[in-house]
Design a protein that fits this description.
The chain is an alpha/beta fold and about 300 residues long. It has 2 domains: about 5-225, Spore Coat Polysaccharide Biosynthesis Protein SpsA, Chain A (Alpha-Beta Complex), CATH 3.90.550; about 230-310. Helices cover about 45% and strands about 20% of the residues. It is built from 10 helices and 9 strands. The protein has helices at about 15-25, 45-50, 70-80, 100-110, 135-140, 170-175, 195-205, 230-250, 255-275, 280-310, and strands at about 5-10, 35-40, 60-65, 85-90, 95, 115-125, 150-155, 165-170, 210-220. Strands 1, 2, 3, 4, 5, 6, 7, 8 and 9 form a 9-stranded mixed sheet that branches. β2, α2 and β3 form a beta-alpha-beta unit. α8 (about 230-250) runs parallel beside α10. The chain starts with 5 loop residues before the first strand and ends with a helix.
Length: about 300
């Protein structure tokens, strides 16, 4: 097999239902010089069997990573990759046929490009449809991502590409020491913000980040995620993740209490303002709940910081 120009990495944990479709979408790419690495992150289902059924294709490799954590699995995949351009596809996503070609071309055209990702649409299955209480904003928690039909140079972390349709230059990843294992999902907790943190580091150090509309991916909406409780939990962990991201970025301190408090009040006010709109009301309740998680994490950091100073 020739030296791959792109390494397509799928990190998976107990998602055998969708994994085969994700792998097959990569095997069907209209690009030739690439490898596929499936990082099995301590799965206990049929994940290995799903991969082994396709190992006759020399482009595909299987790696078992026993330490649970998305960022850990991503680093494992990166360390095993043979190319400079790393792409990450979620185990429940389907890449469009020209996904890899589009991403590779973008990196070839721009040597300062560190991170890129594309449009994400949602696949509703099992008779499930989008509920009335799901706003466009909350749909982003399911992976939806659309900045339009033109290439966009990302200038702030809040617009960063989704992790399920994501690519990164390996030299940049090595420069910053890999994905932070304290950010990103670990088992069933919903820690996040690892991509946002990466964009912050890229922009801070003179690299560029881009949205590529032609690099399309479709994402399955798992039935268990179409519940209010899931979105509340997601909001809670989002708040915790944002607090931790600020701490490692040197933005921790009493200012976090002011920021979190203001956001909490704003979210509660908007939930009352949009009381007759179920989607906007729930979106703001989720946002407010996330600020409680943020404030709790900020308080824990403040207390531990005081304790360290006393010792």
């Amino acid at each position: 097999m020739p030296q791959p120009l792109v390494s397509a990495i799928i990190c998976t944990h107990n998602r055998d239902r969708y994994l085969g479709l994700a792998i097959d979408s990569l095997l069907a790419q209209d690009f030739t010089a690439f490898e596929i690495i499936v990082v099995d992150n301590a799965s206990s289902d049929r994940t290995r069997e799903v991969v082994e059924a396709r190992l006759a294709d020399p482009r595909l490799r299987y790696i078992y990573e026993p330490e649970i954590g998305l960022s850990v699995a991503r680093n494992t995949g990166a360390n095993s990759a043979k190319s400079e351009i790393l792409t990450y596809l979620d185990d429940d996503a389907i890449a469009s046929p020209h996904w890899l070609r589009t991403i590779y071309a973008a990196y070839q055209e721009n040597p300062r490009l560190a991170i890129a990702g594309g449009k994400v649409t949602l696949i509703w299955t099992d008779g499930i449809t989008s509920p009335k209480w799901l706003s466009d904003g909350l749909a982003g928690n399911l992976g939806a991502y659309d900045l339009g039909d033109a290439i966009v140079q990302i200038d702030r972390p809040g617009l960063t590409p989704r992790g399920l349709n994501y690519s990164i230059r390996k030299s940049f990843l090595d420069q910053i020491g890999g994905f932070d294992p304290n950010l990103g999902r670990v088992g069933k907790n919903l820690l996040s913000n690892e991509e946002l943190h990466m964009t912050h580091l890229a922009l801070q150090t003179g690299w560029e980040v881009a949205y590529l509309p032609a690099a399309c991916v479709a994402h399955h909406v798992a039935p268990e995620r179409v519940r209010r409780r899931w979105f509340l939990d997601r909001g809670w962990w989002q708040g915790i993740s944002e607090c931790y991201r600020e701490q490692i970025a040197g933005e921790a301190g009493v200012g976090q209490f002011r920021r979190g408090g203001e956001r909490l009040v704003r979210g509660l006010y908007k939930s009352l303002k949009f009381a007759t709109d179920p989607a906007q009301r729930f979106e703001n309740l989720v946002y407010s709940y996330g600020q409680i998680g943020y404030l709790r994490k900020a308080f824990e950091g403040f207390v531990s910081g005081k304790a360290m100073k006393r010792s």
